Amino acid sequence: MSLLKRTALLSIALLALCINANTVAATSNTAPLAGTAFAKLPEALTLKGDALPFTDYKAWLAHAQSNNQKVAYVDRWQKAVNPKKFNALMKTTSAQWIEYESDGLKISGVMVSPKHVGDKKLPVIIYNRGGNHKHNVTRIAVVERLMPLAEQGYIVLASNYRGAKFSQGKDEFGGDDVNDVLRLIEIAKQLPNADSNKIALYGVSRGGMMTWQALRNNTNDIASAVIVAGPSDLHTVVARRPDMQALLNKLVPNMEQNQTKALDERSAVKWIDELNPNVPILLVHGSADVRVDVSHSLKAAQHLKDNNHSHKLVVFDNGDHSLTFYREEVESEINSWLALHFQ
């Protein structure tokens, strides 16, 4: 065989080897997502990595210790996350960090889904986190709040909002950042495995305010809503908490120039009558909440009643802002509510 022929054959063999290697690499990257809701996504949604790349609780603990995580962080996780529950959730659900565009900005978030979806059409929950500025949906929140919902058979989408650590833009605490929630609703309708007729909003603390505002801006696509310890009157918030006055002065555009207008736009009690009364709302609050007083839910419930708006109010006696000692009861209330209104 001539040198020229041997060279040509060697080149072909190397090319085939490279193609095969690339195929194997592609398969290894996509295989874990096969059969899940992440396998086929709209172009508007980009996966940024596994939110919980651990096989079980021990693997997470080993990872945390090997990466020299602060003791306070590990301790906080251990207090919040039940190892048995974590291991069970890891077998049945999957969570991925996501990125999408809103008003031309790159916004980070997370998507959680049952592992084995196939061609099923599942209800979708848009989760609106609490906190402000650089806060994100934490891994603890993913495990404690979002994965249990996915275990019930729901797809969960959550935004970090603009201005968060991994998002572009500036947090306006209920300003243009509400568009980041509205954009997720539109993306949810595009998910191949989503039942676009069964989309719910679920907001906690500041996320409750975001949920109210999203309901005001989108009255047609939402089947129901859940608001836990959410403020409904920002005028009351700044009157009770000077620290919130300072925070809103920093985050809210034109706050100091026109405070009344800025707070009205973020206070559901000022415009509850504009909401679709056929979208049922579950209000959950602790009677001893010192961050967002229970009066916010009581007042909102009264306004809903006055407007013949379908709703339910649940107040847990002596419950704190996080309803720390009522977690199972809160989860049960929310699961029952969603199951009822996703029928």
Account of the protein in words:
The chain is α/β, with parallel strands linked by helices and 343 residues long. The protein has a single domain, classed as 3-Layer(aba) Sandwich (Rossmann fold). Helices cover 43% and strands 19% of the residues. It is built from 12 helices and 9 strands. It has helices at 3-30, 57-66, 71-80, 83-92, 139-151, 178-190, 206-217, 234-240, 242-251, 259-265, 295-306, 327-341, and strands at 45-50, 93-102, 105-114, 122-128, 155-159, 194-204, 224-228, 281-286, 311-316. The chain has a 9-stranded mixed β-sheet, with helices on both faces. Helix 6 crosses helix 7 and helix 8 (234-240) crosses helix 9 (242-251). The relative contact order is 0.09. Mean pLDDT is 90; it is low at 3-31.
List the helices and strands and how they pair.
Elements: H1 3-30, E1 45-50, H2 57-66, H3 71-80, H4 83-92, E2 93-102, E3 105-114, E4 122-128, H5 139-151, E5 155-159, H6 178-190, E6 194-204, H7 206-217, E7 224-228, H8 234-240, H9 242-251, H10 259-265, E8 281-286, H11 295-306, E9 311-316, H12 327-341
Parallel strand pairs: 4-5, 4-6, 6-7, 7-8, 8-9
Antiparallel strand pairs: 1-2, 2-3, 3-5
Helix pairs in contact: 6-7, 8-9
Q: What is the string of helix and strand elements?
A: HEHHHEEEHEHEHEHHHEHEH
Shape descriptor: globular
Total helices: the number is 12
The number of distinct structural domains comes to 1
Tell me roughly what share of residues is in helical segments: 40-55%
Order of strands in the sheet with the most strands? 1-2-3-5-4-6-7-8-9
Distance between the termini: 73 Å
Can you summarize the main beta sheet? 9 strands, mixed
Give average pLDDT, whole number.
90
CATH class equals Alpha Beta
CATH fold-level name:
Rossmann fold
β-strand percent reads 15-25%
Q: Please give the CATH architecture.
A: 3-Layer(aba) Sandwich
- Specify the CATH homologous superfamily: Alpha/Beta hydrolase fold, catalytic domain
